[in-house]
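## retry 2 of 3
previous attempt timed out at serialization; input unchanged, resubmitting
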Amino acid sequence: MIRPRRAAASWLLAFGWFLAFGGFLPLAHGAGPVKVVLNDGREAQGVWSAVRDGSIALEGAPEAFPLHEVSAVILHEDATVDAPDDGPVLFFRDGERLTARVASAAGALVTVEIAAKPDAGAPPPAPVALRLPAEIVAGFRLREAHKDDDLFETDLAALRAPSPGARRSLDAVYVRRATGLLRVEGTLRSLDAEYLSMEIGGDARRIRRQLVLGALLAPIASRAVDGDVPAVVELRSGGHIPCTLAGLRAEGGRGDALLRFRGLDEAPQPVPLDRIARIRFASDRIAFLSSLAPVRVEEVPLIGSSHPFPWRRDLAASGARLQMAGRSYRKGIGVHPRTVLEYDIGGTYRTFAAVIGLDTSAGKEAAVTFRVAADGKELLRKDMTQGEPPEAVALPLTGVKRLVLELDFGPDGVDVGDHADWADARVAR
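## retry succeeded, writing output
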């Protein structure tokens, strides 16, 4: 792995940052209206004015929203783009990936350049440069995948889903040859515009950058303790960045989100708000249903005894990504009628929230009925057809012990590829 290691006192940096700006980070221009989605499904819209004391403030709102109660801030409604499977990509240890070019690596830092989608008829904006701690990076690919050798992709998949006891102890660099890829193992020391340097068996070696397809990095133990709410920034140009949101800044009429990274003892780094689609936040006050085991599953096909499309966690019933109206969802449940999922939530949650609708993979004539019941009482019944926009729902659950999600055949009573999604389905305390 890239050396040396560096730990961060994140809470101390955050405290100093807020003191430096009087505990208030104003954004006078450049933010525009945003939508704040809370964990319980409620929404608020307004001009994003500040991040202060671990909260998000909107202009004119009587109170700020604590980050631990915020599910997402939506800056642009256009669909986010997943990092492509081809071309330069950075892979994070938490499973996120980012469309970016690794410009350099040295010590415990990896510097990446993120290009933006150019507006029609306008010159392309300058790329955004970010300095990332090596401890959060799992690897990178510098160019398109090798068409005739999937060694890198196979090793990457194994890294994402390791077998019990498996752990990479050395970095692996993948060198392009005429006959395929060569895996070279050692310790990656640096990468610049011309060479990649690594230590192999105690000897220093250099490999020309143009011959390197990519690298997978051995994990570094981190001693960093992050007291802030974890976030993921979804870029309009493709990919997601795990970080924490330190604040907002306005310069020259442009607004920036200030991001901080675990294990990096530096000032927060700016990313223009006009390049961000949304920012998602994690909270221990919510539980995604795709992470919980249902106590009862009932799947009844229209014809026959075997259900053709069993329910899936964090995937559509088709097996593809959860996607509705051009937007992909990272969390949720993909279902096909008739499917009943019952959860024992023990009376400890206050609300249920989700975005419901027909998945992109559903047939053109697809029609379904969504139902939600709490302790036997029906809270929601909604008929939906392909082409209707997804709908956000939020329902009260105080004291409820059993929550039931049901997807049935629509009013037409037939099955024409009725793939539907409970996207971002979650319960909140």
